[in-house]
Amino acid sequence: MPQANADIVRLDGAEKHFGAANSFIIRLDGAEKHFGAVRALSGVDFHVGAGECVGLVGHNGAGKSTLMHMVAGTLVPDSGKIVVRGASEDNFSVPRAQQLGIRCVFQELSLCPNLSVAENTRINHPSLTGFGWRRKAADLIAAKLDEIFPDHGISAFDIAGDLSIGRRQMVEVARAFTLTQDPLELVILDEPTSSLDAHTAGQLLAFVRRFVAGGGSCILISHVLGEVLQNADRIVVMRDGKVVAADAAKSFDRDRLVTAMGGAEGHQKAATETAKTEAGPLRVRARPARQQDGKELVAHVGEIIGLAGLAGHGQTDLLLAIFTAAGRAKAGIEVTAPVALVAGDRQSDGIFPQWSISENIGIRSLARLRSGFLISPQREAELADFWQKKIGIRTPDVSNNIFSLSGGNQQKVLFARALGSDARIVLMDDPMRGVDIGTKLEVYDLVREEARKGRTFLWYTTETEELDNCDHVYVFKNGRIVANLRRDELTEEKIIQSSFGDAA
Amino acid sequence: MASLQTLIAKPWIWSFLGALLVWLATVAFTGGYGGGGMITAALSLAVFTVIVGVGQMFVITLGPGNVDLSLPANIGLASAVAMKVMDGNDAMIVVGLLAALACGMAVGAANYLLIWALRIPPIIATLSASFIIQSIDISYGRGLQIKPPPGFADFTNWQILGIPVLAILTVLFTVGAAIALQRMIYGRSVLAIGQNIRAAWLAGVNVGRIRFLTYTLSGMLGGLDGALLAGYFRGANVDIGNEYLLASIAVVVIGGTSVAGGKANVPGVWGAALFLVLLLTMLNTFGVSAGVRLLLTGLIIVGVITVAGGQKALR
Questions:
Q1: pLDDT of residue A38
Q2: Using one digit for the tens of pLDDT, what is the confidence trace for A6-33?
Q3: Which residues pair with B163 in a beta bridge?
Q4: pTM score above 0.80
Q5: What is the number of domains present in chain B?
Q6: Average pLDDT in the B67-72 region?
Q7: What CA–CA distance (Å, rounded) separates B249 from B244?
């Protein structure tokens, strides 16, 4: 393999640890990609070896997703070369990638919402034909779900659209690992744990390690740096469309990663203030519909209240009930101020795809943007510009379409929509999915700042670290509140204990 | 230059281009004879399609499955109500118009009531409503053709310098509708619901109220159309609105409004209505038979939608 040998010459330190060049599953040389004037990738060299888990980290818009689209064949590089198992691929495409055993689980979930889990599985396995294909597909996916997530509680005949986002993500992941005709060599996992709670995320990562130990390869993209550090063999750091660091995972620690990613160096986790002792006026009092023991969620002016527990145990339901109660009276729920909601499932709950960034921000504040009877385009633009600067939405122009933004930046737009409105209560439905660490820290600061100004936040999150920002945390199980922890009582063990313990 | 480019990027420009082409073809065929009269006639007739087309546009923009199929029956009933109330008496014109509007609004509100209370899809709700309305119309109008008051008939046919006054008023109305669509909370809410009804709800849009208003508006415009048609054609009858079922949907789609909802434009309704009327005139001028005329109309509509609607999806 003369071609491969030539490459070894310019390998830097990282690659030396790992096998010979001909055991590469896939290699990209000098990949470039432009979208209009935006340069998404500028000359990236990237490879994955057999039996290797490569961690890929970087801020939103660093080019990770673009690079992965090339590996999966959904995007063709403007220039550069793709080599699979030592053979150069000129017409690399999705079917070709599939044939070669490359699968991917993208960040934007791709299940067809109107089909069942089994039917969705069949889409990837054309060899399941004849009578009883549904049954075969169902067995295939059920077995894989059982293997990865032993207590998943998903039926293969559930309609995908009816599943919670966390369960959809589990199906998506399991589907990528199902095997019929095509080989299975490399699985790309783009933010696979973003909608999973700590327990299921742990199950998934343990499975990934077993898969890699068995000779499979994986690319793991995650904003949760701990996951990458613990599970990857090698870590590639991207920034502004380039690879800026690539080394064995052992040689990285959290600080080195954050420094390499850039932007958030001096941004240590803000010192947590002492828990408030005095409560202001009441903002929300809510009892979950299935609560029988009189426990209820209480939030006062200026408080940040966390909703914790395993994903899909009634946290979102309660937020939606509170949202509804703000519009009309509802039994068991008291809301004393205007409410806005920051969606976590942004494609189905948040984004208006036809609209510009500024229209997406302005929709919650239309009444205030009027002069006379008409909405003033100037005021709308001012509002958008203000928030673009304040939370750093990366765009040259807020009148661009919302889809010109990367996923994390779309999420910032949803924050801007809520924070820019007149709402005194902000409900957050696990809003940090797919958001990079730098942005997260900025948003945490913003949330605390707004809370000091008297806003109340109800914050459902699947990431335990985020609960450190909360004054109070309610732990949910089976649609009920099972624990109410003050910040000074809050530990990960306590949350996990309450999540799995018997409901009182 | 920039303004020319933005003009070309507008989806409604195609319908006007189509109308222009059809007109040129006809004028070329007749050797330049009757070009002006053709425009006057086209404006007079297009008005009726535009009025219901705007209502239908707001309904269709509410998102997939939203369509008002009760317009023809609604127009028929309102024309009878208007003529009966006016009763050939010039003094009753305003009262008759108001009665037609009220009748249309009642139909629209009933449509939404069916959709909301019984949770049936709008297509079924408005279609079944139209059967009921038609029955009411038949028993109410007794199949008689009732004549409009002379003042009202004159008003609907009134022209200044070859331009129908009704067309001028309708242009003003559509300007208002365009402003409502883009610059008023109502229009923005309709667009938001059409793109993603759940996201609209979570962004604080009052989904139920906006949908109610939209179906009521569509019904009201159908009622207005019925009264005006009865004046223009000098008499109400049950079938007067029949052609406006397909026409109202066709002008919305040809005009560049997305059938998937969430994207609408008002000027295109005018362009498309003129295009359809001129197309018929052209085919009549060419002397083709009725069957061929229908066939060609269908094919040309498909062609225009393919060309104008062939926008590639974002991402």
A1: 67
A2: 444 344 444 434 444 457 888 888 888 8
A3: B160
A4: no
A5: 1
A6: 93
A7: 8
Between A312 and A367, the more confident residue is A367
Greatest Cα-to-Cα distance within chain A, rounded to the nearest angstrom:
74
Phi, psi of B198, deg, nearest 5 = -70, -45
Report if residue B193 sits inside a domain: yes
DSSP A195: T
The candidate with the shortest Cα–Cα distance to A144, out of A165, A173, A122, is: A173
Contact B178, B57 (CB under 8 A): no
Q: Does B202 touch chain A (CB under 8 A)?
A: yes
Residue B4: per-residue pLDDT: 65
Q: Read out DSSP for B50-111? A: HHHHHHHHHHHHT-TT---TTHHHHHHHHHHHHHHHHTT-GGGHHHHHHHHHHHHHHHHHHH
Q: How far apart are CA B244 and CA B79, in angstroms?
A: 14
Q: Do A353 and B192 touch (CB under 8 A)?
A: no
Please give the Cα distance from B156 to B47 (Å, whole number): 11
In one letter, which amino acid is B14?
Answer: W
The domain ranges of chain A are 282-500
Reported as a single tens digit per residue, the pLDDT across A140-194 is 999 999 999 998 889 989 998 888 888 888 999 999 998 887 888 899 998 888 7
From chain B residues 99-118, the ones with a CB under 8 A of any chain A CB are none
Mutate which of A347, A352, A428 to test chain B, going by most B C-beta atoms within 10 A? A352
**Partner residue facing A374 (CB), from B183, B205, B262:** B183
For residue A403, give the nearest of B179, B191, B315 by CB distance.
B315
DSSP A42-101: EEEEEEEETT-EEEEE--TTSSHHHHHHHHHTSS--SEEEEEETTEEESS--HHHHHHTT
List the single range of A307-321, A420-434, B34-48, B142-156 with lowest mean pLDDT.
Answer: B142-156
User: How far, in Å, are B81, B115, B129, B173, B248 from residue B109 at the CA level?
Assistant: 17, 10, 11, 22, 19
Q: For CA atoms A421, A423, A424, A429, give the dihedral sign.
A: negative
Query: In the block, which residue shows the tokens 């037609």?
Result: B100
φ, ψ of residue A183 to 5 degrees: the values are -70, 170
Range of the domain at B112: 12-26+35-309
DSSP secondary structure letters along A329-395: -BTTEEE-S-EEEE-SSHHHHT--TTSBHHHHHHGGGGGGGEETTEE-HHHHHHHHHHHHHHHT---
With beta carbons less than 8 A apart as the criterion, state whether A14 and A247 touch. Answer: yes
pLDDT value at B172 more than 80: yes
In CATH, what number is assigned to the domain containing residue B206? 1.10.3470
Q: Which two tokens stand for residue A219?
A: 């690319």
Architecture label for domain A282-500: 3-Layer(aba) Sandwich (3.40)
Burial track A451-468 (b if 16+ CB lie within 10 A, e otherwise): beeebbbbbbbbbbebbe
Best CA proximity match to B221, nearest among B241, B198, B192, B199: B241
Residue type, A196: L
Whether A174 and A141 have beta carbons less than 8 Å apart is answered as: yes
- Do residues A295 and A308 make contact, with C-beta atoms less than 8 angstroms apart? no
SS3 B193: helix
Is the Cβ–Cβ distance between A138 and A156 less than 8 Å? Answer: yes
Is the predicted ipTM greater than 0.95, yes or no?
no
Of A353, A366, A421, the CB nearest to B188: A366
